[in-house]
Specification:
- The chain contains twelve helices and 13 strands.
- The longest helix is centred in the first third of the chain and has 26 residues.
- With 380 residues, it is α/β, with parallel strands linked by helices.
- Helix 1 crosses helix 2, helix 6 packs antiparallel against helix 9 and helix 9 packs across helix 10.
Amino acid sequence: MSSKPAAHLSDESANTHAYYIGLMSGTSLDAIDVALCQRNAAGFEQKAGIAIDLAPSLRQQLLTICNEKQVTLQTLGEIDHQFALACAQAVNDLLKNENISANEVTAIGSHGQTIYHSPETQYPFTQQIGDANLIAAKTQIACVADFRRMDMAYGGQGAPLVPAFHQALFAQHKTQRVILNIGGIANISVLNGLEQAFGYDTGPGNMLMDAWINLHHQQPFDKGAWFATTGTVNQTLLTSLLDDAYFALSAPKSTGREKFNLTWLTQKLMTNEFMPEDVQRTLLEFTAITICDQIKQQSNTCDVYVCGGGALNPLLMQRLSGLMPNHTVQTTEALAINPMYVEAVAFAWLAEQRILEKTVPLKAVTGANRDAILGCVYLA
């Protein structure tokens, strides 16, 4: 947790002193992030947070489902159950650590684990697992889940959802800011004063870098960028990576592991032999360039605040600053919120919006034809 005062937003109509919990497990599949938040007189504040590593066997099963895109209904049902139990245990661990009882918490907001996201097909859909019934039953706290599909029902991409939260938490009158989340996928929220936020997925964040180091060194991520720093950028490979139709698409747009994965990368590597460390370094440069290109299209100069696992990658942060010399790049610590918990806090906030039956302003982000109340409530 940051030692600075917690970031907050005011909302006089909200329940005073109510606790909410946010659960987030993103495309990196490294951990379940849990944030305890409180609605109080000062606003909406993060009070505590923990990150619970996914059990290796569960992580591998999730990766298999996401990467191979084929699974039996029996296996899918069992993983749905196992992941929900892991989420519930993470919540109970946090409550125990903070000495807070379940009846003090109004609701849990659970993102669930995305196993497939397909917004551009004839019959668009998105699929998250992590049975909210089980989470509610095992924690004895109401659980709000399935946040994406109502937006898709109104013609939206269903992603990203966090720009509305970024707007509520970080927007400042007459100030342009970009909130950059670098998880498995990277997404930006463009905040133009108090106007409705605009944002989209820029492309891969940590996902390809994580997959590559895991393939060669059996590490879940490139800690401290040690592997990338031993290599050099291969311009031939970089050009090939950048030559993907996704980057030329206009927003709204969203993507995920079903698009950018090891199979996609292998196809880019087929015609040449590359040193593994050079591939790692090139993937980092690829991530930085695709992010920066999009930010510079939206803003000639502004403050960029980074959250997500990518905020802890020193070389990636260095390259973001180097590629955007007219922008100030720093983490959300500068805004008084731990960069590792921003998305988990977002889902606590989304749970609050659902409990209060408020629409979430996202149509400018997702392309939906209207803003909607998002999420389904599963009572304990």
